[in-house]
Structure of asparagine synthase (glutamine-hydrolyzing):
Amino acid sequence: MCRIAGIVSNTLPASEISGRVGIMCDALRHGGPDDQGIFLNEEGRLAFGHRRLAIIDLSKNGHQPMADVQKRAWITFNGEIYNFFELKEQLVKAGSTFYSNTDTEVILAAYLQWGTPAFSKFRGMFAFALYDVEKATTYLVRDTSGIKPLYYHINNDGLSFASEIKAFKAAGIATDADPAWAIRFLALGNIPEPYTTLKNVFSLAKGHYLSWHHPSATYKIVPYQEAPPVLNYITDIEVAKEYIHNTFKTAIERQLISDAPIGVFLSGGIDSSLLSLLVHEQHRNLKTISIYFNEKSYDERAYQNIVLDRLSGEKFAHLVQQHDFETFLPQIINSMDMPTTDGINSWFISKYAHEDGLKAVLSGVGADELFGGYPSFNRIKYLGYLRKIPALLFGAAHYFKEDRYRKVSFLQHDHPLADYLLLRGLFVPDDIAQILDTDVREVNEVLFGENNMPELGPYNKEHAAWFETNLYMQNQLLRDTDVLSMSHGLEVRVPFLDEDFQQLVQRIAPAIRFNSKQPKRLLIDSFKGVLPDEVWNRPKMGFTFPLQEWMSKHPEISNLNRYKGKPAQTLVRSFKEGHLHWSKIFALYQVQLNN
């Protein structure tokens, strides 16, 4: 797990290309504290940079950027390829030679053996740049779930890329703000892909590669793997449970590969508890990291202890208090790279995992999206009913005072994002226009002016799963988990997003995959005898901090005088009176902080 950066340019002198990439790497030092490398190719007019967090093959053989033995290709790689042993065996039989035990070298050999079809063979989380010397072509490649970030900027005849937005700013490559970022952020609580806070800096789509031809300075973006349509669903629930049981255990076994200390985040919920217990079966010297609070309604120690009593190995538990939140908030916001209303929890638990000596941890992200763990999976059917009402009638809903009624005004727009915003949105367009002192037509144009979403069909649980996977998990959970864990030099692995496991789950008939009465019932039943009843047979809580209380007491967030404009100050008053959710005031705080 690392941080990467690079520049390809037909106009910049080689010394400037190399110098700027060095600055980019310095800005990314936190994500790769173990080593740094820069590869400069003057003939190809490119430089690749790398900051290393050593997880597999801790020796100097893992130094990057890396070339194959014959130096036909160079790579700078962020991530893990969990099936690299199997691929390496195939490649050795095909005549490839290796000088290290790294998965990085396997990527190079696989590309040289199979070309771009090699990208679909990788099982893992990855973002890399690969330079083919003979073809004078650079490829930017991102994993199929978008677990690892990869941003790019194209200007005139140049391509720049990096793992974080701050690298472009630090090197002076792209410094102008995207004027629409605050609109998107106030609506969604995150910056949705492919957009960023910077003008003309975009996120490469998951499961795609960008190929840049150096002599012509032309490029194309191509999907390297698209999910095939499901022709034969698994309809036997017993068969489904057996497949889930076996495939998920295989996914965990893959992701325990490490030459550095590894552990598990344990919150006390279903996903992290199951993960901890299954890891314990394969890895007895398990380290668990947990967080608890003095605020009783948020404290999950009772459920954490039920699981911990069944585990051996070191068990780390950390108390987080109001004082800690206030002390570290400036550092947390700086680590976010782009504004988000989530991630505070990820920052704290990653901090403690790093302090407890870990370099890699496993997380339960992804289970809710696969098995219907969110309220949206049941609420989506009501959207179908509402969509039968003429859209014009929803326009007056923004006059309501209560938030859940105001959000119905989204449905005046015949757009799938409006459906999602009714389920998970923050501010309605009229409020955003007032906060930013702009025209509501501009807000609507930014949010609903184009539609890049596929046809999602009926308002059913599969529809909700697409929303939660491609909008919420992609733009919020995965991005925040990556950037905030890497701010502490920590790698987070997500076995529920193993490619083979995801493909299996998507082959299960929705009628048995989703359960309206018990969220994630199929997952729970697939591991009877492993997961304690007390852990799953209770209301869903999630990995939640007491942020409503903490932010209301925070001297800046709740300070009316630091907010500009009457609409913003009215919202602060509403928050202090207990009528506004913390996520909305936190979004407002960040917008005013960045303007």
The chain has four domains: 2-223, 237-372+474-545, 388-458, 548-595. Residues 548-595 form one domain.
